[in-house]
TrEMBL record:
Pfam families: Multi_Drug_Res. One of its GO terms (biological process) is xenobiotic detoxification by transmembrane export across the plasma membrane. It comes from the Bacteria. The chain crosses the membrane at residues 33-50, 57-78, 84-102. Keywords: Cell membrane, Membrane, Transmembrane, Transmembrane helix, Transport. The gene is sugE. It is a multi-pass membrane protein. GO terms for molecular function: transmembrane transporter activity. It comes from Acinetobacter defluvii. This is Guanidinium exporter. The keyword Ribonucleoprotein does not apply. It is found in: Cell membrane. InterPro entries: EmrE-like (IPR037185), Small_drug/metabolite_transptr (IPR000390), Small_multidrug_res (IPR045324). The keyword Ubl conjugation does not apply.
Amino acid sequence: MAWILLVVAGLLEVVWAYFMKVSDGFSKLTPSILTILFMIASFALLSYAMKTLPLGTAYTVWTGIGAVGSFAVGIFFLGEPASAMRMLAAVLIISGLILMKLSSS
């Protein structure tokens, strides 16, 4: 159950990162409020997952999901570049996440 909560927390990190971007420096009210709400939900689920998962594993997986997910959202929804170097970086992050999962008991 902790792993499911951790994945959901990571996905919520992607959502709040997107809303933070479209809030235009917190100058737009609705995206700013959504950023804060999704941040709280993401942190709450991360905290709950950390009750049973090691800190290093939980935090690394949470930030990795957020990083790769935000990278994908940037490419597919915000028109950011998908250069070979950026794609390789995302693959390396995903590889690290897989290794973290495999190394945890």
